[in-house]
Amino acid sequence: MGQRSMYIWKLREVVAAEGSPAEIIAKAKRANLSALWVKVADGTSRYANVRDGVARDFKELIRLARDNGIEIWGWQVPHCATTAVAKKEAKLLGDLVEEFELDGMIMDAEGTSAYFHGDLAEAKAYAAAMRQIADNLEKPLGISSNDIPQNIDGWLPKFNEIAKKAHINFPQTYYGASPSVANRVDRAETGNAHLTIPFVPVGAGFIGTAEGGCASASACAERAREFIRLCNARNYQGYSFWHWGGAPMTLWEVLNTVQP
Hints:
- This is Arabinogalactan endo-beta-1,4-galactanase.
- The termini are close together.
- It is globular, with a radius of gyration of 17 Å.
- The chain is built from nine helices and nine strands.
- Strands 1, 2, 3, 4, 5, 6, 7, 8 and 9 form a nine-stranded mixed beta sheet that branches.
- By secondary structure, the protein is of the alpha/beta class.
- The mean pLDDT is 97.
- The longest helix is centred in the middle third of the chain and has 18 residues, at 83-100.
């Protein structure tokens, strides 16, 4: 049985929709989730989930998750305009992992200038700092990036520098607009075949084909079912879905009834 995880992007909205951190954990247990991956930083900024009133809900979520055998990982979108900034961003994620006693950390490092602003030197600096922090804290370190890094002009060398410092690869296999789930996952496997770390794909748990999501709620459920079957058939260590706030009820019905 593989590990089943779910991204949380905007915790305030998730708490408002579910009612409380306790309801989130109850729903996560029904869905057989092993871990929740919560955004904690964007570049050098603490993200909203770890600021002000939301931080209290986050701390309560962490406490309840621990009581129920669910891990909470923190993720950061790195921008890394300079090597000094890259090191500062890495330190922030490490500090937040310590402050909130998180179980793991994820570098949501994505190509194009809208996300990663630096070049090869910045990618090396960020990744090296992150790996040293992860080792010091004895925490697993993942990279979650574009699933076919070769498709983004100039991204592959930087992706490789970051990925070589990670323990796990969480490629974003957003198969919603693909001919099939297998088609997209196969292409991602090929695009990441040069890496030696575990391949643990992220599925499209949202609607919106322009962003790689599914065409409808029913398609989201049907493809999630096939994604889970495929991941198990290939003996991946696990899989995840993006994301809680965008997941239609049909996806939750699949997670509630299909074992990991």
